[in-house]
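User: I'm putting together a small comparison set for a docking exercise, and I want a reference complex before I start. The sequence is below, and the ligand is calcium ion. Could you produce the 3D structure with the ligand included, as structure tokens?
Assistant: Of course. I'll restate your input first, then give the structure tokens for the complex.
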Amino acid sequence: MEPQNQQAPSTPMTPMEMEPNNTILSANEIKLDSSSPIGVSGEIGDSLDPLISSNDVDLFAVELNAGDTLWANIDTETGVSSLNSVLSVFDINGNRLAQNDDNSWVEGGVTVGGVTVGGATKTENDSLQPFTAPENGIYYVGVSSSPNVGYDATVAGSGTGVSSGTYTLKLSIGDETITDNGVIDDGLTSASLPPLPPLDNSAVII
Ligand SMILES: [Ca+2]
Ligand SMILES: [Ca+2]
Ligand SMILES: [Ca+2]
Ligand SMILES: [Ca+2]
């Protein structure tokens, strides 16, 4: 008898990743909701192929209209996952269109006329990538392990990652409120550029 373990086709909503999803042809299909973010649980390092461990790549297919801005946001849970993620966006041919390894943002500072000066730039291992679709079509969001930034999205196991672990990928159209910087398990790794001292109106202006 034939084994009855053939994998079902991708379902419109994917609460958890489904291996193998290591190439754009085997990507898990995600149905985006324009009214609320979609969360997907996954893990780098759980590939079914024993030769693919921390070079695991998880690819998710989304459909976008021209002008849609997709926000892709990785969260990892401190103390649970040691994943240092990379997020990439590919077109239907596997061309890499956008990529973020470590998210960074500015805290503090003074905003004058819509421009913020000063403040502290902070960086986390988790990734955040906004992407505006140039045309209607299917795009692919890839999760990999830093420094696996150059893998071929059409070839399984083609890159090299170092860390592994679980993650949550949040996907949203046009809603950047999922950018929960510094709030939820963002694995803050470094801070640089100390904030400017408070404005001192008594300073002598030459
Ligand atoms: Ca995986
Ligand atoms: Ca995978
Ligand atoms: Ca995040
Ligand atoms: Ca990273």
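The two ends are 89 Å apart (CA to CA). The CA atoms of residues 197 and 203 lie 12 Å apart.
User: Thanks, that's exactly what I needed.
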